[in-house]
Amino acid sequence: MIPSTTKANQIATYDNKIPTKKYFDYQATTPTDPRVLESMLPYLTSIYGNPHSRSHSFGWEAEKAVEDARKQVADLINADPKEIVFTSGATEASNLALKGFAEYNDYNLHIITSQTEHKATLETCRYLEGKGVEVTYLPSNKDGSLDLKEMKKLIKPNTKLISLLAVNNEIGVKHPLEEIGKICKEKDIVFHTDAAQAFGKMPIDVKKCNIGMMSISGHKIYGPKGIGALYVRRRPKVRILPLFHGGGQEKGLRSGTTPTFLTVGLGTAAKIAKNEMKKNSTHIEMLTKRLYDKLREKIGDDIIKNGKDTLPGCLNISFPYIEGEGLLMKLKNFALSSGSACTSASLEPSYVLRALGTTDDLAHSSIRFGIGKFTTKEDVDTLVEEVSKAVINLREMSPLYEMVKEGVDLSTIKWSA
Ligand SMILES: Cc1ncc(COP(=O)(O)O)c(C=O)c1O
């Protein structure tokens, strides 16, 4: 739908009102793109039919909108629209993928995943272990990459599923989807990837990467919260059982009335992401580099970037000798996080950084900076000013930093328990 001039003006006005100035938590969620909102509104007002009502035009109109959105999502990953199952988000999609696959296989299988996965995968795997499924958690290299040779060694005759993130949500490390897919193809294993942080931000071709199932989330790509999808390959067919039973919607894999306005929002967000991916990637890459370079310029070399081969937009940095929580307190005017939103209430150091071999102290001194398409150079420069001021100030109060400045080698010190 092409917006009318008046509507376009409204969008422009709304656009200026998005309060993004101090928002640096784009991995947790993204602001809704005004064009997404605009596309959704008619489905909350005039076009309110149930998309599953087959006997009147109210239903047909809603059904058409849902099917158009399905195609927009499929188009972004080179899939067939019939392979897209709408869910409430990536958490549900991964639950459906893992539990649905395990149940179809009577819980008689071995799954390989990694220690740095999102909780949606890790907790689901733990649940499945309770049902008798054997799960191996692949360790991570120091730079956040996976040792695929090691992974190959872990494959057993009953390994039927490998589930690995496309991009890590805490450190932004990209996993080599094509290589993993190739191994899975050779060994006749289904490859599931949680692509919540990658979908719409980098090109993904499910066919080229031999992906069997893929979890997608709407609110990570400027779409609405409460909608996502699971890609389930048709050829060769990946067989799963549903989590929900009821009206048999979404080809029997997700019963319940499909929320038309949310699917339309996800579809529009996917379409925009496809059209503007290049432009956004260039902008976000430039700002991520600017943030890192300027922080080093202001603070010095003793800051540590966690993870190698990362997707621009996610910059996880340890600031040795200070507490990340103390730093966050000094940066209250900014929306920042020390890690995943799901675990941000916990005082435990990040399990992802721990899996990389990071010490608890360093893990505690880490901040995740999230940059998105609405972030500006000025936002980054303001952030750099405030972060560097806070880090320098906190270090001045740190006895450890004093010792380092005086030349004490901290590794020679015996710490009491
Ligand atoms: C990698 C990853 N997987 C899953 C999720 C959960 O997504 P959703 O909020 O759509 O359930 C998130 C977001 O927190 C994520 O970053």
Keywords for this entry:
417 residues, alpha/beta, Aspartate Aminotransferase, domain 2, Aspartate Aminotransferase, domain 1, 3-stranded antiparallel beta sheet, globular, disordered N terminus, binds pyridoxal-5'-phosphate
What's the short version?
This protein has 13 helices and ten strands. The model is unreliable at 1-5 (pLDDT under 50). It has helices at residues 5-17, 34-40, 57-76, 90-104, 119-130, 148-154, 177-187, 260-299, 324-330, 351-355, 360-364, 377-396, 399-405; strands at residues 84-87, 110-114, 134-138, 159-165, 190-194, 213-217, 228-232, 304-305, 314-318, 366-370.
Give a structural overview.
- The chain has 417 residues and is α/β, with parallel strands linked by helices.
- The chain folds into two domains: 34-273, Type I PLP-dependent aspartate aminotransferase-like (Major domain) (Aspartate Aminotransferase, domain 2), CATH 3.40.640.10; 277-409, Aspartate Aminotransferase, domain 1.
- The chain is 41% helix and 12% strand.
- It has helices at residues 5-17, 34-40, 57-76, 90-104, 119-130, 148-154, 177-187, 260-299, 324-330, 351-355, 360-364, 377-396, 399-405, and strands at residues 84-87, 110-114, 134-138, 159-165, 190-194, 213-217, 228-232, 304-305, 314-318, 366-370.
- Strands 1-7-6-5-4-2-3 form a seven-stranded mixed beta sheet, with helices on both faces. The chain has a three-stranded antiparallel beta sheet with strand order 8-9-10.
- Helix 3 (57-76) runs parallel beside helix 8 (260-299) and helix 8 packs across helix 12 (377-396).
- The protein starts with a helix and ends in a 12-residue tail after the last helix.
- Mean pLDDT is 92; it is low at 1-5.
- The structure holds pyridoxal-5'-phosphate.
- Pyridoxal-5'-phosphate (PLP) binds at residues 89-91, 118, 120, 165, 169, 194, 196-197, 217, 228, 341-342.
